[in-house]
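for the recovery benchmark. tokens below, seq after
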């Protein structure tokens, strides 16, 4: 492990690239901007109470964990390795200033998308559950803000308020709820080329228009009501 800072206001990396095959931890109580290119198979953890901003062209393959209450901000579009499994703990915030691709998303924190920016997740083909909230706004209707890639299942059990559209790639699934009373999508149209699953024990209304070649499955004990003009081509 290489740890930058120890809960205080000091501690920095040098200016060069970082080859991380172990664990890289940031723990500062004030804001820290890191533009170093980080590669390797290792993990990265934001453990501090200050805001950490990553802006380098990063390709590391290990897990990214946001556990510090200061939060993590991503800039530049490649601040996290595309295959990295991301864990956003409760009480923390992952802010995406520039559209970002990650391997998977889990946890109970907040993912805050900047205006018109998108999160692509699921490319590592694992199945995860995210009980936090995804927020965001768009200036053009139905701009994509959540893109589910890969063959795994991505389950949302929180209340989401991002305004943009949602895309589900072929072979994978996006699930709303996990047998309980929470789990929702907000925002624009859904382009479903995989499977959209609804599994809630109480009533839910989907007003999003659903297109694409994929299927829709009502798996919950609660009533699902569809109110949009839907054109998806798969089974129901």
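predicted aa per position
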């Amino acid at each position: 492990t290489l740890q930058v800072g120890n809960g205080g206001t000091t501690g920095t990396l040098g200016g060069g690239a970082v080859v991380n095959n172990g664990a890289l931890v940031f723990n500062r109580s004030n804001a820290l901007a890191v533009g170093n290119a980080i590669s390797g198979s290792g993990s990265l953890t934001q453990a501090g109470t200050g805001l950490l901003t990553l802006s380098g062209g990063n390709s590391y393959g290990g897990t990214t964990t946001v556990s510090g209450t200061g939060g993590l901000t991503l800039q530049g579009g490649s601040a996290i390795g595309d295959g990295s499994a991301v864990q956003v703990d409760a009480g923390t915030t992952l802010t995406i200033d520039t559209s970002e691709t990650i391997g998977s998303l889990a946890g109970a924190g907040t993912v805050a998308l900047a205006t018109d920016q998108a999160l692509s997740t699921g490319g590592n083909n694992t199945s995860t559950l995210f009980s936090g909230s995804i927020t965001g706004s768009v200036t053009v209707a139905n701009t994509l803000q959540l893109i589910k890639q890969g063959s795994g299942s991505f389950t949302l059990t929180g209340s989401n308020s991002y305004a943009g559209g949602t895309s589900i790639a072929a072979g994978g699934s996006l699930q709303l709820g996990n047998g309980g009373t929470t789990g929702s999508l907000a925002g624009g149209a859904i382009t479903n080329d995989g499977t959209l699953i609804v599994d809630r024990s109480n009533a839910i209304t989907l007003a999003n228009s659903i297109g694409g070649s994929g299927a829709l499955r009502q798996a919950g004990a609660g009533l699902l009501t569809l109110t949009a003009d839907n054109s998806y081509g798969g089974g129901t």
